[in-house]
Structures are given as structure tokens and as C-alpha cells.
Amino acid sequence: MCSVNVLEAKTNFSKLIQKLETRQEDEIIVCRNGDEVVKITLIDKDVSKRIGSASGMFVCPDSIDDSNEEIAAMFGV
């Protein structure tokens, strides 16, 4: 854990982010007048992986259009 004041955080923001990305720090605390006010951490990458998360769990038939007429009839179209 690293602790910096607001001015230092503002001046070295890119360097602080790099410390998090390279895992030199797991979180950075920003202080104002000696009091902790903000905690900066990395976003968990797994949360943003939604597309393709069910890959391989379902099988789609080769021709999904074979039943279109039957389905349309069920809906009265």
C-alpha cells in the first residue's frame, strides 16, 4: 500500500497507475491534510469479459433456419 498527498497524486498520476498495473502496489491511498480520502485500485479484468463467456456451453445447429415456418405458424404469422 502506498500513501500520497493530493498534489503528489495529481503530479504523478500516470506513474501511480503504472505502479498498480505492474503490481508494485496493490492500492494507493490519497490523503488530504493527513486524512485518507481516496483509494485507487485496479479494476478486475474478469468483470469486463462478458462477450463469449458462455463459449462452448451451447451448441447451435448447422441450419437454424429449418424451423422458421413452423415457429411462424406458432405465432400466427
Secondary structure layout plus pairing:
Elements: E1 2-5, H1 6-11, H2 13-21, E2 28-32, E3 35-40, H3 68-74
Parallel strand pairs: 1-2
Antiparallel strand pairs: 2-3
Q: List the secondary-structure elements in sequence, H or E.
A: EHHEEH
Task: Give the class-level CATH name of the domain at 1-42.
Answer: Alpha Beta
Count, helices:
3
Mean pLDDT: 88
Gist?
By secondary structure, the protein is of the alpha+beta class. The chain contains three helices and three strands. The protein has a three-stranded mixed β-sheet.
Could you explain the architecture of this structure?
The chain has 77 residues and is α+β, with helices and mostly antiparallel strands. It has a domain at 1-42: 3-Layer(aba) Sandwich (YefM-like fold), CATH 3.40.1620. It is 29% helix and 19% strand. The chain contains three helices and three strands. The chain has helices spanning 6-11, 13-21, 68-74; strands at residues 2-5, 28-32, 35-40. The chain has a three-stranded mixed beta sheet. It starts with a strand and ends with a helix. The model has no long low-confidence stretch (mean pLDDT 88).
